[in-house]
Every structure is written in structure tokens, then in C-alpha cells.
Amino acid sequence: MSITLKINGESRQVNAEPDTPLLWVIRDELKLTGTKFGCGIAQCGACTVHMNGQAIRSCVMPVSAVAEQEITTIEGLNSKTAAAVQTAWEDLAVVQCGYCQSGQIMSATALLEKNTQPNDGDINQAMSGNICRCATYMRVRAAIKQAATDLAREV
Amino acid sequence: MRKFQQMSINRRAFLRKSAGAGAGLTLMVGLSACSRQETASGPQQLSDAVDSEPLEANAFVKIGTDNRVTVMIKHLEMGQGTYTGLATLVAEEMDADWEQIVSQSAPADAKRYANLQWGPVQGTGGSSAIPNSYMQLREAGAAARQMLVGAAAAAWEVAAGEIAVVKGRVSHAASGREASFGELAEAAVQQPLPQTVTLKDPKDFTLIGTKLSRKDIGKTDGTAVFTQDIQLPGMLTAVVAHPPRFGARLQRVDDSAARQVKGVVNVVTIPTGVAVLAETFWQAKKGRDALQLEWDESEAFNQSSEELIQQYRELAQQPGASAQKHGDVEQGFAAADKVIEASYEFPYLAHAAMEPLNCVVQIHADGAEVWNGCQLQTVDQAAVAGVLGIKPESVVIHTLLAGGSFGRRAGTNSDYVVEATEIAKAHAQPVPVKLVWTREDDTNAGYFRPLYVHHLKAGLDKQGNIVAWQHRIVGQSILTGSPFAGMVQNGIDLSSVEGAIHLPYKMDNFSVELHTVDINVPVLWWRSVGSTHTAYSTEAFIDELAAAAGRDPIAYRLDMLGDDARHRGVLELAAEKSGWKSPLPAGRVRGFALHKSFGTYVAQVAELSIADDQRYRVEKVTCAVDCGVAINPDVIRAQIEGGIGYGLSPALISETTLREGKVVEANFDRYQVIRIDHMPAIDVHIVNSAESPTGVGEPGTPVIAPAVANALFAASGKPRHKLPLGERV
After folding, report:
1. Which domain holds residue B335?
2. pLDDT, position B29
């Protein structure tokens, strides 16, 4: 069936069965491959995108359920917060294999959009759905804190 | 894998020996470092097209007229930082500007890109990228520099010796002439290949030892391309139904419902199962789920982990094949004041890299093309060629970034690469086929870190000194029957006993024995291989002996290290930096472990907090590492942090359990791995060293489990004989 998605600020027409997870529409139909497949059961967070600014797991979200929602993928990140997160990620050399990092950055950005000064507990809560098998977690935490500090300085 | 050294290239052995020698070495340049291709046909650019085709100075260095220097990376970038590390070696000797360096995966070509520790095999593993490339890539960089200088000297009609190169600028002070690498590129590649090069004195390094930006770029904005992301015209995605148990055989296929699924193009039977090909992944998966299959499981493996452990325990009570021996352990036990024994149990483990396994294959009239996070290019090339009945050199491999591997993409029989090839062959259409495994496919397929049982027995004299040590290991062989079977010697798979057969501690009567179990469960190396279990059993047992001797665990070890300076060095550094001798606040405990693997020395102190309900948390890890010359200190720290994090999962919570031959933990809901809230603060201290560099991808991993277990032992007095350790003291 034909579905209209609002994705990265654009309206995109896609052809997919209604039960197709948003992840596979993003990847296979829209060819936006920055969002990754990791587990298919919302356990690892590699597929994290934003729906109306909230971090969601696109691997279990049927495309039919998101037709009217604002979807943002890693390719569509353009906020000041996202830029601060990506800069901190580069500065601290967070990434190793990088496969989970789109999801990490999407979760971190969603966190900082709502909570400008997250403490360790806040970070644990927001980020514990994102597995990194390279275990870059220490630098993920440090980069979130650095991004928060950088954003506070800019204001 | 590093034990392939026996086949390695002799000249390199000489170079490695001289690597630590100070002042500017002048070396003969060998063919492998600096040959040029007869016809330039490098790997296709998948993206990121360059303005002009860079010009080849040698096998590892291309210089573009746009001033970009492309370093051909012969190893797989899977997160360990090899795009950065190998490029550093080239850039250092070239005196390039780091910003002008671009890293690109080398094509599959063992003639030019062999792992020099393995012989004529291109591949990545055993933490060997830096040690096998250290001299080779410095030579390649120095040769390219010499050609640039030669070109400038000819153009400016000045002596080469008067020319300086600084941060990618070639200059002649007296005449005031100056040029970029790009401006000199065309003339430089016309220069004769240098017969000798002079390498820098390490004191003149400007890049090695500093923090540099990583060269595996595009990982923070979604633009990095992994195998999963490959899009090619006409490409189909394949999802495979595998046997429900290892060794089950397909009896009957009813694919009528699968073929009705929208988007499904074909269903093919291959040796490893039934593949559904469709336009998209989701269609292929729905098609796969709609297959009606019957399997003959009469010869399938149907045992449970529990039964295996029981059998292994019984075997561990009997003498095994001798893997290492000196002195006479029986005499030692007879003379001992005290004899202590302990058994240790280790479950199967899945690698569970974030990128589930996948591979793209396209068959052409004259060969095949493979897109893969390829870890063993030469092995995979031969395997694909074997399926198709063509020559290995007709198989072009595009090595892509891998979303982790931890050993899994180095399958000794190229399992998933062969599967993708079989599907493309059976489909028999000239289109690319992308095989995608789901997470469950990935975990259920096996190739686990084997399940092991160890039994250790030690005799102590009246002072608590070890007078006899007997270590028995029971488990499957990773390498028997594989292309790496050369590492199985006299029935001993060295990967089963590494880390146990050469302890740093002085012992007069010493014996390590192995029982190799032959069962139909696929097993494979897993980050740090034998050390994943041998570091645990040996280091946990040492703490039990120290306790029996009434000694401090670090002091006890130090006494047995003799004058082994590098082991002592990391031990003392970790002890000092962790404040080992200072008292801990209430509710805190510490544990120590020491282990050398892949030539790198690692000591760790784990500090745990213990709550009133006896739950504990690993709060802090202090790690000392000696890996010789530290090429990229920040990458070393990252690998040690990540290696500890990777090792912490099986230490605390990960295990793969077989129940009647089936995997219980097929996805991350059951296969527990550490998340951000488990991650301790890790403090890495790198020993300042002029020794030849060794790898760091693996050595951090095996040390954390015994360090944590030893802390728990210190807290409770109960030794920990089984991994994972669980959540409570």
C-alpha cells in the first residue's frame, strides 16, 4: 500500500505493506542507511530514530502507525543540540566500530533536547536501551556531559 | 592466529629485531612493502569519489594531484582503529599533514597485502595489525617521501639532501622553493622505486605517540558504509532458514506460501538451508517465515550444556594430552605441605557483534565480486572460488567497515560468505545478492567461544610457595580441520591452551594437559581466544593459593615474577595507580589480575562496591598496559576500555546455553550484555616503552573477569569457579 511519511522535514511517498517496520522502510525504500538493524525486537537501540522528538525503536514500529508523525533519522539531524552531540562525539573519539553510534547519537540528542543538564542516573535511563558491543559507554557518557556543557556555554 | 609466524617472512624477523634500535635506520626495501601494481586497478570506490585518480607511489601509498594521500589499509577496520593506526605509520615517515591522509581498504591480494605474521595470507586477527605493519608501513611512507623529495630535487636542480619535508610541504630553504605533495605527485611516481630508505629515529616522531583524529570517518552522521548498507542496482536480499539443530538435514520443502509473499522473487535450496530472495529484507523475512520445512534430526546434535559440563568434569579428572611440561608434578605434590584443587567452568559464548552477519555477492561471467566486512581475505577468496569452481584471483573482495567482529568474521570455513555465494549461484541470475542474517540467525548459527572445564591442582610448601602446578583443560578444538590446522601440533590445539602454557610465575614442576572433545557444535575464536578462559582459571587460582599461603595477592605474584621486568612493570604500575596498599572505604573491595596475551602485558585492579543486599557493582578498573611503542595512545586507551567492557559481559552476565541442542539465548532479551549502567570508570596507564609495538585489540579483554572474581573472593572468602559470576557476591 502507499503511505505518506513525514521524514526529515519532507513528505515522502512509500510503497510498503502496513506491517513493515519503519526501520525497513527507512533503509530499503528510502535508502537512508544511517539507521541500523541490530536485533529486531527493540532490545539494542541501533535502529533509534525520533518520532516527534522522542527516541523510538524503529525496528518494532509498523510503518502504518507513523504516517502522521514527524520522523527524524540520523541523516536529518540539524538541531544545535545534535551538532553539539556530534562534535563532542568527535572530540572524545567515542566511536569504535560505529555500527550502533547512529542510535547512540539519536538517544543522546533526544535526552539533551529535554534535559539540558543530565546527571549519571538520567544518562543511564536514557541510554541503557542502546547496546554498544565495543563498550564505548564511558566515552558516550563523557560526550553527553561535554555536549551539555558546550550547549550551556552557548546560551 | 599469530602462531602462523612459523611460516612468516624471514626478512621481517630481522627488521623486527632491529625495530627498537635508535637512530635513523637505513633499510633495504623489499618487494612486499613497495612494489607497484603492473596495471592500476585498485578497488572500486563505492562512494566518496575523488576528483582525480590518486597516483600509486607503492602498494600502500597513493598521492593525488588534489594533495590527498591515500593509505591502503590491508587490515579490516572493525572498530579497533586500524584505519588510524596504519595511516599513522605511513604519515609519520612521509612527514605528511595528518589532514591530507585518507584511509582506504586494500583489495584482496595476498601478494601485496599479506599479514606478515601469518605467511602468504591476508587477514586480520590476533591483535597483529600494528606489530606486523610497524616496519612495513614506515618503509612504505619513507619510500614515498623519498620519491617526493627526488622529484623536487630534479625539478629544482638541487641536492635531495638539502630538501626538507614538514607537514606535507616539500621545501628547499636556500632557493626558497616549496611545493605540496599534490604538486609533486605526477613527477614523484615517475621516480625509480627506492632501493633503500632511512627511517626516523623514534625521538623525531611527530605523529606517533600523539592523539590524532580517527580515519574511519562517517560514523557520527550515518554516512559510513557497512555491508548492511550496500545498495546496488537490481540487488536482492536473501534471508535463510537454517536447520533447527546442528547437523539436522533438510527433508522436505514446501515454499508455495513463501512464493506468494509480495516481493519474493525466488526460493532456493542451498547446503546450509533454504534461502528466500526478495526485493527487500522484510519481504524476504516474511517469505522465510512462511516456508514449511521438514528436517531429519536423527543425527543432529541434541545435547545440553549441562550434560557437556558433566562429561567435561569427568574428563578433567583423567590425564590428558601433554601441552606443556617441566619438572615432575607428581613428585612436587608428594613433597608438598598442602595440595589445593579447583575446577572452573566456562559456557559457550556468542560474539554478538552489533552488525548481524551479512555479505553481498555478485557472480560475473569472468569471476565474482564480494562486499563484506572481510576479516580473512585470502581464506574467503579461496572459499568463494571453491563454490564457483573459479580461481581465487577471480574473486574481487571489497572490504568494508565491519560493525564489530570479535573473531566472528574470521570464520575458518568462511561460513556466511560461502552461504551468500551458494545463494547467488543457485539463483543463477546476474544480480547482486545480499545475504542478511537476523540477530537470531546470527546467534543460533553457532561458531561460539567453546564451552570449557578446567581443573587445577597446586602443591604449596610450608611457606606457601608453589612447588607443583597441574592444569587440565577440557573443550572443543577451534582449529582442527580448518585452514589453520597448522596450529594443532601433536594433538594440541594451541588456541585451547594459550595463556596457560607459559605463565610468568616461576614454577619448578609444571604440567598443562588437554582433552579435546569432538562434538558437532561449531566453535570459533572469540576476542582474546584461549585467554578468555585460561586467564581466568590461572589468575583466580593464584588468588586462592595466595589466600592459602596467607599472602597479599600482588606481593605473592611479585615474588614469583623474578626479574621479568615487563610483567613486573605493569603489575607495579596498576598497584600504584589503584592505590592497592591504601585502605578502602567500607563496602568496597578490590581484586587484581595479570595476563599477557598477543605479546602485550596487562594488569588490572577492579574495585567493586557491595550493597547491603549483596549485589555488587564494578565501579572502577585501573589498568596498566605495556604494548611497546604506543603508536596512538588514545586508540590504545579506547581498545583497553572497550576490551574490558567486552570482557565484563561474560564476567558478569553473558552465556550461551544449549538445551537439547538448541540455543536458549538467541537475542539480546536473553543474551545479556553489559549496558551503559554496568560500565565502570576505567583508568588506563600505558607503560612508556621503546620495545617493538604489539597489539591491543584483545589483551584488555581476558583480564577483567579474574580481577572481578578475585575482588569477590576477597569480599566473601568464597572462590568463584564458574562464569558468569552473577549479580551477587
Report:
1. 305-348+448-716
2. 56
